[in-house]
Amino acid sequence: MIFRFADPWYLLLLLIPMAMLYIRDRRGGAAFPGFAFMLQSVRPSRGPWLFRLLLVGGLGALAIASARPQYGRSIVERDLAGRDIMLVIDLSGSMQINDLTGTDGKRMDRMDAVNHAAHQFILNRPNDRIGLVFFGDQALTSCPLTYDHDTVSQFLDRTEHQQRSLWGQGKPGLLGSNTNLGLGMGMALRCLRDAKSLGRAMVIITDGADSRELPTWVDPLLAARHADAIGVRVYAIGVGNPDGTMTQEDRFGQQHVVQVPAEELPDMPRLESIVALADGKAFTANDGAGLAQVFSSIGQLEPTPRIVRTRDDFTDRYVWPLAIGLSLIAVALGLEPRLRGVA
Fold first, then answer.
1. CA terminus-to-terminus distance, the chain
2. Is the model's pTM score more than 0.70?
3. Are residues 98 and 204 in the same domain?
4. 83: closest CA among 9, 194, 168?
5. 201 & 116 share domain
6. What is the C-alpha to C-alpha distance for residues 110 and 167, in angstroms, rounded to an integer?
7. Residues in contact with 170: Cβ distance below 8 Å, sequence separation at least 6, in sequence order
8. Domain annotation covers residue 28
9. Residue 70 φ/ψ, nearest 5 degrees
10. pLDDT of 197-251, one tens digit each?
11. What span, in angstroms and rounded, lies between the C-alpha atoms of 10 and 60?
């Protein structure tokens, strides 16, 4: 809540009563012998000064009232009318390869880097609806499109925790160890059918080649054509360092650092052919910082439409200074003869 004047230029009228304080009355008529002696002996009257104060106060209050003092606030209204974005994240076994480095220079696996960058991407798009799809051999809609980004982040963390727990037990993971990219895209398209959205897109994050040998395999090119037909733009991020190394455990339990095999790297030509069918773009991410930069680039390619309206909710408060000003002037005029000593 703030105080303001609707017409502040009227405050310049305050110069008039301020000037009146310095203008002294001049008495006319001729002086007579002993006049100076009388002024010294007779106690001066405070009536004229009080009259001046009443008149100055009244005019000052009227000047303030004419500037229309107001009290209230400016209300900013934002419409939650952003884009619909599905994050389609690979959960294949190769996501545990630790060939990436974070911003602190420490080695990190692909899942850790992807989740960290995804959290920041979600945080930077508060006005968008965001959802999650994970895929391996199968695909799962973990979180439908929602403005509740805290819930999206919780599902992201929960899935990572469950996946790492299964990996720690020597199991393939929640959805298998392969890469059924087309199935994941098809699952995401089911959530992106709202034609009223101001923009629809899916962001695929994968680190390996498509597993065509799976019985449930879906051609991602077919999914990309369908995405383009319904107005959904497709972006793809290939995660993996072609010049990196990974920690590998031999059958005796000893750790070795080896070069990342070519079959454990993303198939970028394949990803580029997929996104080309859906007006999108493919990116590579060789480390944690690069992955964060890729998400930032996608954020710039898909700017969030922001509908912002501002309205003022102010109430005039000129009645009191107006009433005070008129009252003071009325008192001054009513008592003027007595205050000046002429009545």
1. 50
2. no
3. yes
4. 194
5. yes
6. 14
7. none
8. no
9. -135, 155
10. 878 999 999 997 888 999 999 999 999 999 999 999 999 999 998 888 887 776 7
11. 11
